[in-house]
Amino acid sequence: MSRPVARRAKQVPLRTHWIVLTMLLVCLASMLLLNGYTHHMFGAEPDGAVASTGGAGSVPRSITAGGPVIDAGNGTPRSVSPKPRTIAITFDDGPDPVWTPKILDLLREHQVHATFFVVGTAVAAHPDLARRIVAEGHQIAVHSFTHANLTTATGWRRDLELRQSQLILAGATGVRTTLLRPPYSSEPEALRDRDWESIKQTREAGYLTVLTTQDSEDWRKPGTDQVIANSMPRSQAGQVLLMHDAGGDRTQTLEALSKLLPRLQARGFKFATVSDAVGLPDATNSASLLDRGRGLAVIWAMRISDAVLAVLGWLLYAAGALSVLRAITTVVAARRHARMRGWSYGPPVTEPVSVIVPAYNESAGIEAAIRSLVASDHPLEVIVVDDGSTDGTADLVESLRIPGVRVIRQANAGKPVALNTGLQAARFELIVMVDGDTVFEPDAVRKLIQPFGHPAVGAVSGNAKVGNRRGLLGRWQHIEYVIGFNLDRRLFDLAECMPTVPGAVGAFRRTALERIGGLSDVTLAEDTDLTMALCRDGWRVVYEESAVAWTEAPASVGALWRQRYRWCYGTLQAMWKHRGAMVQGGRAGKFGRRGLTYLMLFQVLLPLLAPVVDVFALYGLVFLDPVRVLSVWGGFVLLQLLMGFYAFWLDGERPGPLWTLPLQQFVYRQLMYLVVIQSVFTALAGTKLRWQRMERYGSLQAPVVR
Q1: What is the pLDDT of residue 706?
Q2: From the candidates 92, 488, 521, 529, which is the catalytic residue?
Q3: Are residue 673 and residue 583 in the same domain, yes or no?
Q4: How confident is the model at residue 432 (pLDDT cuts 50, 70, 90)?
Q5: Which residue out of 126, 138, 147, 244 is catalytically annotated?
Q6: 543 and 418 in one domain?
Q7: How far is CA 77 from CA 61, 64, 70, 122, 312, in A?
Q8: What is the structure's pLDDT at 43?
Q9: Where would a tag sit more exposed on the chain, N or C end, judged by fewer CB atoms within 10 A?
Q10: 0.85 cut: is pTM over it?
Q11: 95, 118 in Cβ contact below 8 A?
């Protein structure tokens, strides 16, 4: 067998993609904040549903007993009323895509002009309707940006509401206005001290406040006849009538208006805009080009935020569906796999085994690994291939003087080359490959090779468990191994599409390895690449859960990041290398269409989508119903806990570590997301990585040789 040449790819620092990702996150946060502010912070109650409270001692008598149009300037506050027998019909809360056009059609039919107090967010959503209001001679005015209660709003929020309303109006219609109706306001006599302070502050911003003299109370939906009765003037005095063209079903408003207009016209009442009714100059004027441009920018920002939220909503559904699908699929498969316990692949396999241990600076744990292997209850030879270690690994193994253990020294060339070197030196047909930090149970080798009793089996995956479980990081990796890796392997075994025999504990048929040319070094996940090559060559790869080996997991976040980054990036490399299996027939096609699809959906796409769940959780806690959001999040955690208890039961593990699972959602899960994101960015950028050796701590112990 030819030995592949080791490749040394230059390690390129990857910083650009983190800058891009940070910028994307900032933009996403901005869009969500904008969307949450405009859609979920204010305006939950209709006009008239929020009553003013408190004293009214500071409100001038001339205002409470005066007209509905108020000028609260620095001089003497003034107010004016509509001319006698003149009615200024005003519509709040629009424009609405259903009801505003119908009301405009009705007003045009009766040749009546009205005043529309529009909400900025509604104008941004339907700028064409705002333009139609202006084009048809109606007066357009401000009703705040988000239907916020300006009386209770802080100063900065009040300024924001007014400024954004004007910008959106300028962007949509090209005009500005000086008329304002504060949401939740009513008649002048209902003003309280806090209302008056707000009115004075809005006057400083250049606004005249328009209240009402008559409320149709159509927001209550009392019935068409009652809306008409509420809207009929009680005298010949002029009126400012409050109605609504948005905020829900306005059928009663429309029907009442269709009867009210001809009835009042027949009685000699005239209809006018607010400015015309009180004899003031037109309150609208052309906006500057700068304000129009800024207004259009705000409108487009709001539209983009709506689109972003819609996309995130669909992604949330996709992530939820994939999570539930994965849970159901793995649990059902694990249950069926458990029923196969005791299944015989053929007669017992008793032939000796060659165990290959590739080692590079493994002095911390190599002795425990070797002693656990020679303590096996099955005949074997151990071949330690020292890949140019600088910490005396080879000398340490030789000093042990354990019979049946050979050491082969070679210049540093990488793990795949070391394994191929060991394969050339092996004397037996069955090969077990072991990492230098792995400790085997005494019966692990014997149980691991039993599936080779079936001639179609080319490789066997053992059950790798985390040995160093102390601390949160160790427990979280232990949970991941049991719930994630081992549940998946049961499913892969059942579906005959195993993508990875782990380097920690795996067995191979020598004939199968030679037929595919040994191990390749073109990916960083040589175990995944090798397994996929065997599947494509028609060999069956199975999982033997009773063959238990203990591996040393990373003990620091940095070491964990480097390990998982290499795993994930290497897996992506292997998936791309073996993508042709998707269109092959036989076992290769089964692996491609089942195994690669599963990996793409649940180990690539789902981790990329999973942050959407966290983003929405934060969004919901701030802008939506926190109880509902926490309930949904709790449901996901409960689902994982149930999966965890079942997986731990299948593996014969005590469920104690599962108490840390909810905490895992806040740190460990996000770390794994970032690993996948960086791996995908690295793959798309075409950057090559070199082998990154994990730190060894020598925390595992082995049985004494008998």
Answers
A1: 31
A2: 92
A3: yes
A4: very high
A5: 244
A6: yes
A7: 10, 11, 8, 32, 50
A8: 56
A9: C
A10: no
A11: yes
